[in-house]
Each structure stands twice: as C-alpha cells, then as structure tokens.
Amino acid sequence: MNSIVTVISNIIAIYRRELQSYFASPLAYGIATIFWLLASFLLIILVFGPQGLLEQSAFADQAGLQSAPLDLPYEFTQFYLGLLGSLAMFVLPALSMGLYTDERKQGTLELLATSPITNWAVALGKLLGVVTFFLTMVLPLLVLEALIVGASDPPFDLNLLFIGHLGLILMAAGVLSLGMFISSLTESTVLAAILTFAMVLVLFVLEGVASGLEGPLGEAISHLSLLKHYSDFTQGVFDLGGFVLFLSYAVLGLFLTAQSIEAFRFQRN
Amino acid sequence: MIEVDQLSKAYGSTLAIKDVSFKVEPGEILGFLGPNGAGKTTTMRILAGYLPATSGTARIADHEVHTDSMAVRQSIGYLPETPPLYPDMTVEAFLYFVARIKGVPIGDRSQRVASAMERCNLGEKRRILIRKLSKGFRQRVGIAQAIVHDPPVIILDEPTVGLDPKQIIDVRNLIKSLAGQHTIILSTHILPEVSMTCDRITIINQGRIVATDTPENLTARLAGQLGYAIEVAGDPERANSVLNDLEQVESVTALSGEGLAENHYRFQLVSATEDDPGSEIASAIINSDLGLYELSRNRVSLEDVFINLITEDPSTAEEDDSETEPCEAVVDDDPENDDPTKAEAEPDDEAALVAAAEPPTDSAADPADQTPEDSAEQDTPAKTDE
C-alpha cells in the first residue's frame, strides 16, 4: 500500500515538473501561439469564408432546396475537428521531441536513473504532463467554439462536440506517447522531432495504403490508422475500437520508453 | 558500508576499470584519486547503480548495487560529473522536486530543503532560476541535491570542479562536516583535495587500484627519499633515458615545459634511496652533452607519491604479473594515456631500473624473497618497503 502511494507521489512529482517546464519554456508558448492562430483562422474561414458553411447554407436556402437540409452543427464539428486533428499532427511532434532528449542533455537522466523511482513512473508522469499541456492548448479554442455554438440555430448537440474533442485528446495521447519513445532514443531534439513527424505521417496515411490492399491485411492495417478512428470520433460516434487503439498506442509508447531507458543504461559508453 | 569487490567494466574491447576492490567504513570519507580517464567516473556510476559492471560486485549498505538497485538508490545521494539540473526551475523548486522523488516524507521536505540550502550556502539564490546561476552555484546546487534527503551514503564525482578557491574551501568544509553521520566517497584529480578532506585515499590509474591508504602512510612510503626538480636543454628523450638509467633515481616525470626557453625541459625525479643523488644527476647530464640549467632539491610530497604510483605501476605490473599483460596492452591503447615521452621511456627502462635498484636498496633482504612479496602486494611499487 505504502509503495503504491510512493509511486503515485513520484508520478505526480514528475508530472508537475514536466508541466512546469512547459509553462517556463518560450518554445512551448511559441508552438501554442502558432497552434491558436492557425486553428482560429481555420475556424473563421470554415464558417465565414468563401464556400464556408454560412455561404453554403445561404446558397441552399436561396435555391430553395428543402429536400436535403444541411445539418450545419454536424458539418461544422466534422470539418472543424478534422482540421484541428491535422493541425495537431504538426504540433504534437514539437511537444514530444524534448521529453527525453532534454533530460539527456542536462544530465538529469542520471539523477532520475539513480533515484528510487521506476522508469515507467517517469514516463507516465511525463506523458500526463505533455497531454495536459496539449489540453491547455485546446482549451482557449473552446471560447471561439462557444460563440458559434451559442449563435447556432438549430441548437448544437453538445455531445457531438464533447466526443469529438475526446477523440482529439486521446489521439494526441497516443501520438505523444510514441513521440516520447522516439525522443528517448536520441540526444538530438531535432532528430526526435523529424522522426516523430515521419511516424505520424505513416500512421496517418496507413488508411490510404490499406484501401489499396484487399483482404484481411488491408483491413488490419486500416484498423491501425489514426485518421480512420479519429474521423469516427469527429462524427460524434464514440468508437470503442478507436478508443482502445489510441490507448494501446499510449501504453505501447510508455512501455517502449521504459525499456529503451533501461537499455540505454546498459549500452552506453 | 561500501564494499567493492573485483569490479571490472569493459566498453567494447576497452577495459575502463579492472578488478577494482576497496571498502569504505561507515562514517569515513574515502578519496578516489586518479588522473583524468583513470576510471573514476565509471566506478562512481557503477556504485550509484547507473551503469552495470561487466564483472564483480559492489555493495552499498549490504545491497548489491545492480540486482538490488532500488534499495541502493534509497540510501545514496549522488553528484554526477555534470550536476543534473533543470535550468528552468528555481533552486528551491528543484530541491523540492529531488526531495520528493528521493522519497522524503511530505512533512520533512521543507525542513530538509532548507537545511540543504543552508549547508550549501544557497539561501540567497533560492528563488533564482538555475539557468541564471554561475558554474560555482550550479555545482553547489548539485551537491545540495545529493544531500537533500539525508542519505547514509554520499557519492560525489569531482565535487569541486568549476569552483573558485573560496568556494572550494567551503565545499571541503561542507564535506568534512558531513563525515560521521554519512559515509562519503569522492573522486577527484586534485591532490590537496584528498589530503585535506579524506580519511583514506584510493589511487586509481588506468582502471586499476594502485594504492589504498591514509594520506600520512602514503607520504611515508617515500619518506627518506628525495625529490629533485631539474631543467635541461637538448634532446628530451635522451635526457629522459639518461636520467632513467641512473641507479640512484627511482622515477622520472616529465613536467610541462611552459614558460621555458626553446629546447629546455623540466623533469621531476625521486631518488631511489636516502642517499642524495645530486652529484650523480649533475654529472650524468653533463657527461651526455645536455645543458644543465637548474637542479634543485625538494621535499617528497603526496604529489610525488601520486605521480610515482601512477607512472610506475604499468612496468611493475608487467614485470610482476604476466597474467595482466593483455589487459595492460588494451589500457595502453587508451587515447587518454597522453604523454608520449612517459609512455615510451617507462616499460623497459623502469623495469630494468627496478631490477637493478632493488638488491642494493636492502642488502639484508634476499632479492628472491622480495619478488613474491611484491607480486602479492601487486600494486605497491614503493621500493623502500621491507
């Protein structure tokens, strides 16, 4: 019992330190700013821009096409969260790249490795920290969304938005965890970022690959695709398969990170 | 408290340390002294459980450092070669963090952190970000994180690197004040450091322990022998071999030639016996057409003992113990084995010198008796020993 308390206390210590380092890092603020600017820009274009949702809807009204009315809230959530997901793919590698490379550069890995704390507790604390930071990056966007939701007629189904955002965070957790593993492999932050970005691209395009393949292999590969499961979430469907997949990516990343740090200590010279 | 037994560590085919064994008693300060690249950091890292050893065992507080790593981690404080610091944290926040992951109970944390900061004179810097601190203060934060959880065993790898003289004295006093309740092992390549702070000294060279003793006993090993500083002009290799060939000289060390005129070289000699070799040295230099510019007698210091031990050991080992020869060869390949004149002059000349110098040193003892005793002690090159 006592040991569980210790482990939890350790995880919290790492978590708080990790979060604290994001909030003290100009780079993290820079990444967050770019993310906010792009996301709000996309949001505005999506709603008000040429061929935006409002224009489409006005056009539909004018043409008097009553037979197939646009479900605007639905269209909006799907497009907007889809864009946000793609945007996140660029941002997440930048968040995870420094998770372990910095520890190596500062020599603090030696402190962690000689303290009574397990590798996986460190990894879990770090993952929770970076996911929390991503969450705080998404939060301000909720203000913009609230404006649109408030002005919407017919009213929004809030479940739709909630499930979509849940999907976004879960997917981010999976990607960040794998990115953390990659950052544990190298001392170079830039290399970690590039490799993580490449991995994200591969996970993203898997669906394209899968659709070219027939039979069970294609199906299996398509199940690994981030995009496929994520788009289920953005359509307001709680996709249990996707939930399990994102969680599996996160656990896999944690496991590999703990292993690679252990192996690093054995091989280094 | 710390027991190290036959510890070896190989990086690929290079042996970093070989058969290192020593013990540290509770409450003692052991100095781990050796030139750069001798294997000090490797030994420290194995003790701290950061690196696994290739063979041999190390136990801290009766726990094996590798198999029982978590138990060992709880009882050590460790300052690595580069202090492990998070630049974006304040000193105080960092020490709180360390106290927390070291398992200091929540109620004791603020008191432990305050006491560590006070001991390391960090009070005025407590709210400063670590990245804004100077090297000396960072080093002190490094020491503070090693003692913040009040561990029974403290491992300090080069604790005074980067400090100014005043800070060095502070740190030495701090280390001394920790003795008694804590068992301390500290590594350094600075001699005065160990002679001032440590109860016992272990000297390591090229990955092997060459001596473990108190500072007084180590100095006594060369007691009676005389040191000479000499400046010559001419071919340095020739000077080295001429000096080495002298029966009355036990060891020759090339010193740095900084500030000397061109073609001038300095050497430090230690006499083989109590007989003053001054005139022999002078005539040998002059007879071999080398210019003699300075010859001054000095007291044998701990430094001479150190240099004597670390420069002489390979030849002694080679002579005594043919078993270790392969390892010796590997270690010699080490790029950190720097000085070419030293390396070249030593093995053969020294071996011959030792063989020649030994019988007259102690006419009462049979040379045949001496040899096995030497190999039993293996790493004790002090020839005045009975």
Could you explain the architecture of this structure?
The complex is a heterodimer of chains A (269) and B (386). Chain A has helices spanning 2-23, 26-48, 53-63, 72-96, 98-106, 108-113, 119-138, 141-150, 158-183, 189-212, 215-224, 226-234, 240-267. Chain A is built from 13 helices and no strands. Helices cover 83% and strands 0% of the residues of chain A. The longest helix of chain A is centred in the last third of the chain and has 28 residues, at 240-267. In chain A, helix 7 (119-138) crosses helix 13, helix 10 runs antiparallel to helix 11 (215-224) and helix 12 crosses helix 13. Chain B is α/β, with parallel strands linked by helices. Chain B folds into two domains: 2-213, P-loop containing nucleotide triphosphate hydrolases (Rossmann fold), CATH 3.40.50; 223-377, Alpha-Beta Plaits. Chain B has helices at residues 40-47, 69-75, 91-101, 109-119, 135-147, 165-178, 191-197, 215-221, 236-245, 278-287, 302-320, 325-333, 340-361, 367-377, and strands spanning 2-11, 14-24, 29-33, 55-60, 63-64, 76-79, 153-157, 183-188, 200-205, 208-213, 227-233, 249-254, 264-271, 291-298. In chain B, the strands form three sheets. Chain B has a six-stranded mixed β-sheet with strand order 6-7-8-3-9-10, sandwiched between helices. The longest helix of chain B is centred in the last third of the chain and has 22 residues, at 340-361. The model of chain B is unreliable at 313-386 (pLDDT under 50). Chain A binds chain B through residues 6, 9-10, 13-14, 16-17, 20-21, 24-25, 106-118, 265-266, 268-269, and chain B through 11-12, 45, 48-52, 70, 73-74, 76, 78, 80-89, 93, 97-98, 100-103, 145.
Instruction: Please report which band the strand proportion of chain B falls in: under 5%, 5-15%, 15-25%, 25-35%, 35-45% or over 45%.
Output: 15-25%
> The biggest beta sheet of chain A, please?
none
Identify the overall geometry of chain B: elongated
Structural class computed from helices and strand pairing of chain A: mainly alpha
* Main sheet: strands, sense, barrel of chain B: 6 strands, mixed
Gap from first CA to last CA of chain B: 32 Å
The count of domains of chain A is: 1
Let me know the number of strands of chain B. 14
Strand line-up in the sheet with most strands of chain B: 6-7-8-3-9-10
Q: In percent, how helical is the residue content of chain A? A: over 70%
Number of domains of chain B: 2
Instruction: Based on Cα principal axes, name the global outline of chain A.
Output: globular
Estimate the helix proportion of chain B, in percent.
Answer: 40-55%
**Mean pLDDT score of chain A:** 85
Given the helix and strand composition of chain B, which structural class is it? alpha/beta
- So what's the oligomer here? heterodimer
